[in-house]
Fold this sequence. Notes:
Blueprint: E1 10-14, H1 20-37, E2 42-47, H2 52-58, H3 63-72, H4 75-79, H5 82-94, H6 99-106, H7 115-124, H8 127-130, E3 137-144, E4 150-154, H9 164-171, E5 181-183, E6 197-201, H10 203-206, H11 210-214, E7 222-226, H12 244-286, H13 289-304, E8 316-320, H14 336-356
Parallel strand pairs: 1-2, 1-7, 2-3, 7-8
Antiparallel strand pairs: 3-4, 3-6, 5-6
Helix pairs in contact: 1-2, 1-3, 1-14, 3-14, 7-9, 12-13
Amino acid sequence: MLALSPNSKIAVVCRGGPENGPFSAQAFLTASKGLEKAKIPITAIYANSGAVPTALIGCYGEIEKLCSVWRDIRPRDIVGGAKESKAFMRHIRQGIYKSRAMLRLIGKESVFSGEFLDILIRKHCNFKKVFAPSAIKIVIPAVDEISGKLLLFTNKNPKHWDAMPFAARGSMALTPFLPPVVLGDCDKAGLLEDKEALLSDGAFKANLPLEQALYDSCKFDVIIIIDVHGLKLAPLDFNQRNHWATHLRRNMHILINDHDEKELQMFDRVNEEMRVLGLLQDLKKKLPAEDKHHMEGIIERMKSGPLGLADKKVVERVFISDHRYSTLFNFASFTQKETMDLMMAGHYAALNMLKSLRIPVDGLEQLRPAA
């Protein structure tokens, strides 16, 4: 049984995807309140794409505000007014054979403008608080289309202050639905040698930023992974099987899910290597003196060789997920009920996680989202 204490270093890793926006917000609220009551602080938050607001606002302790935003948010707040979103959905419903609709969609850099999302982020996020010394460390990944590199933005680097609003929107820039974001002065921020970057969704390289948390200098004891899917494929809606947008998102979901599964396998493999290393170190103590140097050579090879285990440690992981609510959330056309269902699922999944760690959940039921 995993035991936590006030000295435990805990990282929260929020997987990307629009559906993990409302799910991670409520899950983080419930989990963080439970940990707070047990006097166990959260050390860092890693979040990508749709879960980025959870990191941005959760890092300075106003996650309730974000949950309120999710309860009230509508598609027009993300992609624009009713005219834009309804026109797009009408084109989708008409099918891929409507050439005029397709020409309108492929003739632009993206289906939707990112300006409404940018307004939404800047309206509800206080970046001064994000970079305050008291804020929890956050790390947000985004992909630079020019160099192909994964860029990591953190509030613990003052040089990233000006870049963070662009990083937040860039990390959500899912092609072809939202446009990439131009970021300047990358060289001054220490992100790239080049001056400019073109930021796209971090999902293309780190939808589950688990590796980034594992190799963080903070040396976490426990990583809490928040993902409504539980790293499983969402059910396929056969009623929409002939829609090109559904096919596109489904295949991207398959590709990204495969990558994230490998990320988790890497995490578990490093943990197993560390456990084996520990067994070898124990065995060395029992060997006769003339044989110890052979074991020391093996141990040193594991530490300094390609495995690079010298600066690693065993890191436990727990999930906050509920695959029963797994869905490819349509940020251009969703209902309040869909949002509330995801938030409710996040709340109860977080309660289950806390119970699994034997952390009292008394009083946390009042955090249950209400429409």
